[in-house]
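User: Um, what's this?
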Amino acid sequence: MTLLPSASANASEVDRLLWALLAISLAVLVLVFALLLRYITRYRANSPVDRGVEGTKSWIFESAWTGATLLVFLGLFVWGANLYVRMFNPPQDALRIYVVAKQWMWKVEHPSGQREINALHVPLNRAVQLIMTSEDVIHDFSVPAFRIKHDVLPGRYETLGFTATRAGTYPLYCTQFCGVNHSMMTGEVVVLPPAQFAAWLARNPVADDLVGEGRTLYIRYGCSGCHARGAEVATVRAPPLEGLYGRPVPLSDGRTVTADERYLHDSIVAPGAQIVAGYQDLMPSYAGQISEEDLLKLVTYIKSLSPESPP
């Protein structure tokens, strides 16, 4: 029997957590059933064993048993929560790759513009952050060799991080039933040493990167007419976008959110949901008018805008 390969930085820890949970659960199960078996055997009907007088309840024993079990499983919970946070919060210098799920394929776009379908090339021993969304129904991005899986939802951005530690090709699956051809929604993740990954990028040139394509869409949809600095803003007062990404944004309802990819995406498709403090709800929704692929490009361009960027 061939064991599932462990090909990511967190894979071994995920395995240890699962084995620990299984071992402790089995230990508790064996102990409980062993005590039950001993009790029903020793004190069965017509047993000559002296049952003595009715004893008093031992709160010390009950509290110790309950407290020990609680502490053990609470420890497993803290372990799992810590692992979860680390997987879904990759380092700031992680390579960000965009994934769009669609019946029944995975469409991948690299920051420099390279595109793939049902394949994902990543460098060895470098943190990767996937920014994922769906164009139709709920899908689930799963790479068993990396011990990662995460739902990909329509109209929302979901992120998932990993660091591949073994070069090779690993299966990619959709593990959420998404239609009649769900079983065909597969692909592969190809892990390459850094030099080979750079060579692969060079062999797959593109006409423009995501920032360049996003700039074209930014102008085409008239974003610059309202959000750019200059005289145009006098007619329609809209919040500036230069230097917005990663900063806290105060909202009109008193909340403060961070301008991450999800916030930028939602501000385009549902602008009325989070109104910036000091501004009116004037922007129309672009839901259904811009594809998820183009939204990725727009968001990437907006992220690139620094305070000194031209409008």
User: Anything to note?
Assistant: The chain is about 35% helix and 20% strand.
